[in-house]
Amino acid sequence: MQLALNLAKKGKGWTSPNPLVGAVVVKDGRVIGQGYHETYGQPHAEVNAVASAKEDVAGATLYVTLEPCSHLGRTPPCSDLLIEKKIQRVVVGTFDPNPLVAGKGIERIRNAGVEVDVGVLEKECQLLNEVFMKYIITKEPFVVMKTAMSLDGKIATVTGESQWISGEASRQQVHNLRHELSGIMVGVETVIRDDPKLTARGPNSKNPIRIVVDSQLRIPLASTVLTQQDTAKTIVAATERADSERVKTLKQMGVEVIVTKEKSGRVDLRELMKTLGAMGIDSVLLEGGAALNFSALEEGIVDKMQVYIAPKIIGGKHAKTAVEGAGVADLKEAFQLNRMTAGMVGEDLVVEGYLDK
Ligand code: AOF
Ligand code: ZN
Description:
It contains 12 helices and 16 strands. With about 350 residues, it is α/β, with parallel strands linked by helices. Pathway: Cofactor biosynthesis; riboflavin biosynthesis; 5-amino-6-(D-ribitylamino)uracil from GTP: step 2/4; Cofactor biosynthesis; riboflavin biosynthesis; 5-amino-6-(D-ribitylamino)uracil from GTP: step 3/4.
């Protein structure tokens, strides 16, 4: 199962909005086949694993990180393939919450007399597909709020200098995350101040769809995210009160403009998440700024936080911090993180946690 998990990870960034799945065929104590779901719309992991075997898979055990499917989708049901190939035993990492599958895959193979065990490295298998597990049920993207700060909690100096607080290794890790997730979202202030590219600059990487939250359409028309759209698509989200001429201009530049109702004078982030989900965007990396971060937490759209903490002290009463906005008045209203973990990336500390709802 660990090998199947490692195989599944190779699909990171390419399978969205479908899951990452790996499978291994074992016979007489030897691995005789292995495969993973490589790209969206391409064969499922089980199909690739069975097809890679150079000998008959009859009587073998198949280890798969996610319950085999039971539906006729872009490909025929994998459960039928396993039955037809006379696989003797199937070891499943975790249940598939997809309503089209949801236990029916396991039931189908069990009813055909195949031995089935479920729940091997279950937590790891669920974590691997945390995006899929949310999106398939809610049809709203899994949102990761990422921020990089000094040990004293600053994301820039008093003069606004922020490049770079975190180290090279952390920045590389963020580029991998940009590749793995479908969208990247920032507030318009970040675009005005930094003119970022918001692309994934790692080896073999795919660019996320760029989403700029810009209630009044203040985005400068010369911004890189508007002028360089050949490598990555850009969406601008505004409110109904935004100037319709400006909407027209942006559309003429090839930008997709999403208009939401107004929520406290700003873009309604919950409505925006629903619209992005309906467009097939299963995950969003929220990269600030501080005002948007607070709104996102307040609106309850954040699923996970990832904070890089650099071994630097910046200081300054007016130096920016990661989450600003109005803030909460009482500690009992503070946003609570769960399942916290901490690790090191180069010289930086990386802390992750979940905002369970
Ligand atoms: C995958 N790859 O290896 C497995 C999947 O869109 P379809 O027809 O390819 O079906 C996608 C569903 O199949 C997906 O939501 C999940 O429930 C199930 N299993 N999907 O893309 C795989 N095993
Ligand atoms: Zn399948």
